[in-house]
Amino acid sequence: MTNQKPTATSRLKQDYMRLKRDPVPYITAEPLPSNILEWHYVIHGPEDSPYHGGYYHGTLLFTKEFPFKPPSIYMITPNGRFKTNKRLCLSISDFHPDTWNPAWSVATILTGLLSFMLETTPTLGSCESTTYEKRRYARQSLDFNMKNEVFQELFPEVCEEIKERLAKIEEHRKANAAATNNNTTATAGATANGAAAAAAGASPDGLLDVDGADGPNPVTGAGADESNNIWHSLYTNLIVLIGFVIFALIVHYVIKSMNIE
């Protein structure tokens, strides 16, 4: 009696060796050391997609009947295209055993998953989101994945990439914060200088408002014109008042003369 290895185990080992020789673009995949039927993958968001810069972690769960039965496919990292921790209904997943081809390998499954992720076709397990939301998920995926112990254990090289990117993002944030603080300090200093100059009788640009300068003289300029206008109004009102008084006296005299007659 011969002792043959299970078909699934031997086939998955072959697929793993093929993946190492010929990796799938934008995808890294590793089986659990303790269970070759459970694979974990990381999709690196392609440059020309809203997923660019993101790292999307998910799982492939194979049965012992593989390659004659398809695996279950899950996405773990929020991404805006697939729901997390939900079985995905794809032609390469266990939702469609009727369309499954035993000749398809792990590389075929991962290639099909990436292709469908870049589409917008709805299916069971998919979700809708805007391009802005997908890009936000891409940024958030860095911190999200680093909190997953299995992710860190299976993908140490990817974790190093993420750590470098997070460090650069933090440096950029600090540089922006420093620039903002410098601008705020400069603005506050300019405001304080302007206030001090105004208190000293100078304009904010340092030019004193004195005789012979650009600013108006406080005595012979606008202030003198205002005083002249006030006196002119007083004179006018006084003349009008005197006129009314004279007119009233004349009327009174006329009425008195008529009574005497």
TrEMBL record:
Kinase found in the keyword field: no
Main location: endoplasmic reticulum
Gene3D superfamilies attached to this UniProt entry: Ubiquitin Conjugating Enzyme
EC number(s) stated in the UniProt entry for this protein: 2.3.2.23
Membrane-traversing stretches: 234-255
UniProt KW keywords: ATP-binding, Endoplasmic reticulum, Membrane, Nucleotide-binding, Transferase, Transmembrane, Transmembrane helix, Ubl conjugation pathway
GO molecular function: ATP binding; ubiquitin conjugating enzyme activity
UBC core domain segment(s): 7-164
EC category name: transferase
CDD domains, sorted: UBCc_UBE2J
Localization of this protein: Endoplasmic reticulum membrane
GO CC term, one of those recorded: endoplasmic reticulum membrane
PANTHER family assigned: UBIQUITIN-CONJUGATING ENZYME E2 (PTHR24067)
Function in brief: Catalyzes the covalent attachment of ubiquitin to other proteins. Seems to function in the selective degradation of misfolded membrane proteins from the endoplasmic reticulum (ERAD). In cooperation with the GATOR2 complex, catalyzes 'Lys-6'-linked ubiquitination of NPRL2.
Protein name: Ubiquitin-conjugating enzyme E2 J2
Lineage: Eukaryota, Metazoa, Ecdysozoa, Arthropoda, Hexapoda
Gene giving rise to this polypeptide: 6041247
